[in-house]
UniProtKB/TrEMBL annotation:
MF terms (GO), sorted A to Z: DNA-binding transcription factor activity; sequence-specific DNA binding
Organism: Roseateles puraquae
Ribosomal protein keyword on record: no
Name this polypeptide is given: AraC family transcriptional regulator
InterPro entries reported for this sequence: AraC_XylS_family_regulators, Homeodomain-like_sf, HTH_AraC
Pfam families: HTH_18 (PF12833)
Keywords of the record: DNA-binding, Transcription, Transcription regulation
């Protein structure tokens, strides 16, 4: 049945690895122009499977539109993009916990910031077989079961251990915790060591990761309460004043809060009465 919006946490064995599964299926009449999705930065690396028509992506700030492969690893975004799917759009996206993608692949995530790569070029041959199986499925539960079986096999093999940066990132996601100096000392590191480790495992610095997490909370709150004042939303999301909110909108989207809201109101999922208004894992 279409449309489909299925967002769910992982099964218990993958907690600590996966933050959330997302399955979205939208179908538009062939005579319609498919709306563009303004995709704001959110604090997660991901593995995405495009199971029907391809997705094309370009930066809001400009530049060429790129066609994504059918399975991609997506690094930490820090700039808003415009995503456009086809008339039969189906995406299954696995959002990872901080550091989990590094632990699975050994790929330094600071080489993938604001970028993506073809996952079939990185993973062994059994991954291609997984992609082929997923392409034959429509049921969200079956998609997740297939992917989780593959992930659990990789997670159970000898892998890189969790590191201090992963723990710090989870605290930043929760919006709490002391300053960076204290966090570094707690884990027996100096600030420079923590920053270097954090960048390799998440793709950005601790400060920028925390800002992205706060901005993501803000946009979701705005979607949940579209009539609310921006200042009230900013305070609820952890901002101190409207000036800091406006700065983050300029840096992350190149737009004012009101202009971005108007663009987001035209997102494809809104044609079906859905919007992104809750944080993963909550």
């Amino acid at each position: 049945m279409l449309p489909l919006f299925h967002f769910t946490p992982p099964s218990p064995p993958l907690r600590g690895w996966v933050r959330q599964h997302q399955v979205i299926r939208l179908r538009f009449d062939s005579g319609l122009v498919v709306p563009v999705k303004p995709y704001w930065p959110r604090p997660a690396a991901a593995l995405a499977f495009y199971l029907r028509d391809a997705e094309h992506v370009a930066l809001v700030a400009g530049g060429p539109q790129r066609r994504k492969a059918r399975a991609v690893l997506i690094g930490q975004p820090t700039a808003a993009t415009l995503r456009q799917g086809g008339h039969d759009f189906a995406v299954y996206q696995i959002e990872f916990e901080p550091g989990a993608l590094y632990r699975l692949t050994g790929l330094p995530l600071d080489t993938l910031t604001d970028d993506w790569l073809d996952a079939e070029a990185l993973f062994p041959a059994d991954f291609r077989a997984l992609v082929e199986r997923l392409a034959q499925l429509d049921d969200a539960g079956q998609l997740i079961a297939q992917a989780e079986a593959w992930l659990m096999a990789r997670a159970q093999a000898p892998r890189r251990p969790e590191a201090a940066a992963d723990v710090v990132a989870r605290r930043l996601l929760a919006g709490d915790g002391p300053g960076l100096d204290t966090l570094a000392r707690t884990h027996g590191l100096d600030v420079r060591q923590l920053r270097r480790q954090f960048a390799a495992r998440t793709g950005v610095s601790p400060r920028l990761f925390g800002r992205v997490a706060r901005f993501d909370r803000l946009v979701r709150l705005a979607n949940l309460a579209p009539q609310a004042r921006w200042l009230d939303l900013a305070l609820d999301a952890g901002y101190h004043d409207h000036q800091h909110l406006a700065r983050d909108f300029r840096e992350f989207t190149g737009m004012t809060p009101s202009a971005f809201r108007q663009l987001e109101m035209q997102a494809p999922e809104r044609r079906f009465g859905f919007c992104e208004s809750s944080e993963p894992g909550r």
